[in-house]
Amino acid sequence: MIHIPNNNTNAFRGIHIFDTTLRDGEQAPGATLTLEQKMVLANQLVKLGVDVIEPGFPISSPGEFTAVKQISQQFQEVEICGFARAVFGDIDAAIRATQDAARRRIHVFLSSSDIHLQYQLRKTRAEVIQMTREVVAYAKQFVDRIEFTCMDATRSDMDFLIEMVETAIGEGASIINLPDTVGYALPEEYGNMFRRVREGARGGDTVEYSAHCHNDLGLAVANSLAAIQAGASQIEVTVNGVGERTGNCSLEELVMAIETRKSALSASTNIQPAHIYETSKMVSRAMHFPIAYNKPVVGRNAFQHESGIHQDGLLKNRSTYEIMNPEQLGIPRSMIILGKHSGRHALKHRIAQFGITLQDQELETVYHAFKEVADAQKIVTDDQLLRIVGQSVRQGQPLEAYTLVDLQVVAGTQRAHMASVTIRDEHQGTEQSYSGIGTGPLDAVIHCIQQAIPVAAQFDDLEIHSLSSGEGAHGEAIVTIIHNEESYRGTSMHQDILLASAQAYISACNQAVYEMHPGMDQEEETAAAREE
């Protein structure tokens, strides 16, 4: 089918985003959240603009019940969904937990595939139809909006699935969810299932349809888009795609697919893209689930480029190799990664970010020295780059405003974490030592450095990556700081992770110092920074 772009935003069909990060996402092994974490994440999901939050499974534990209840009480601006098996006790718990919500629904699920009926439920089709009738009618007495899920719909007999949906609609279900519970379906199959149910079930055109896809074959987003094209108006997602096994349809991937291809899909959502990256980081930290480097939209490499051809194109016009603007997603701009595939244009651009301008011959000298280092390792970090420039064209002159001379840390299970650092002010030619304490070794180190460098930089984020294995393994530290509402990013690499983190932090601070006074020489920059 050929899609003709439609620029009339009024023609876009609204797709409701149902977030189940706090329920299905938390079912991922090791992803357990505390009540406090759930409250913080629920607040962030509201800020993000999701339409429905499924905060947990109320019957599963007292803690889950309390979380659903408190989220229902506090967040009146969003619809809250209480999750329940096709069991009266589950439904009662979901009703009680969500009773203070301004808008709520009860979500009841029951298996529809013969595999589940035979081996899990041990019930006949007739018994399952009767259960459907009873539980939907029971829930309808208390709540108007009932979502009914036919679990494992994609492996169900189509005639039986239609009969089950008809029964649920007949008893008052207003939202029908047809999940790909085990991530088995292909997009064409999944879309056709929605069309056949809508057309075949009595009352099928009077209810809303929802898609809930798992990612076992990597098709969760594709299947969800197929469901939208087949008439679904709600997609159930999790932040970062967390969830059972390989996870659920990823909120950020689905939303940005819709946003980027809005005209082709004639669809839109209420999600605020500027909060996507922040939300992704919060969920990753709370669940202790790292984000894959190549994760679409929010992964480390999603907007970073090492190829010289790509870097040259990006520096001339971002749209040459990027279909989304990372800054609109709340992602700090750091698109250039220096490695052996990088070219002169990218090298010159990164050096300029430290306030250093090179003449053509100087750039050529630096470029060849850079290539020798880049060939020996995966990436060239900021401190290495500045060292290369200083040794190659500045007669060994240090180019950083501040450098780390020495670092000592005292840590233990029954003692305070203390650190001392010696920082050299390269422009003044002086060294001074500082000491500090913190909640951990790195926190103590950062407190020391903040005393030394006259930039009131807020430590925002730290990424640590192993670049090799064994006793000689090196770690790469990537530190982001915030100064005057601007982000600065420094990198460093060392066998000692604390040392690498400290050097990366100083590198980021040096960039902030340079950008504060780009027109001054080095001595003037330092003097001005100290005055501030």
Automatic annotation (TrEMBL):
Enzyme's top EC category: transferase
Enzyme nomenclature, EC number: 2.3.3.13
Superkingdom, taxonomy of origin: Bacteria
All residue ranges annotated as the Pyruvate carboxyltransferase domain in the record: 15-277
Family annotation (Pfam families): HCS_D2, HMGL-like, LeuA_dimer
Protein name: 2-isopropylmalate synthase
Keywords attached to this entry: Amino-acid biosynthesis, Branched-chain amino acid biosynthesis, Leucine biosynthesis, Manganese, Metal-binding, Transferase
Any one GO molecular function term: 2-isopropylmalate synthase activity
Keyword Ribosomal protein among record annotations: no
Family: Belongs to the alpha-IPM synthase/homocitrate synthase family. LeuA type 1 subfamily.
Organism: Paenibacillus selenitireducens
Pathway this chain belongs to: Amino-acid biosynthesis; L-leucine biosynthesis; L-leucine from 3-methyl-2-oxobutanoate: step 1/4
A single BP term in Gene Ontology: L-leucine biosynthetic process
InterPro entries: 2-IPM_HCS-like (IPR050073), 2-isopropylmalate_synth_dimer (IPR013709), AIPM/Hcit_synth_CS (IPR002034), Aldolase_TIM (IPR013785), LeuA/HCS_post-cat (IPR054691), LeuA_allosteric_dom_sf (IPR036230), LeuA_bact_synth (IPR005671), PYR_CT (IPR000891)
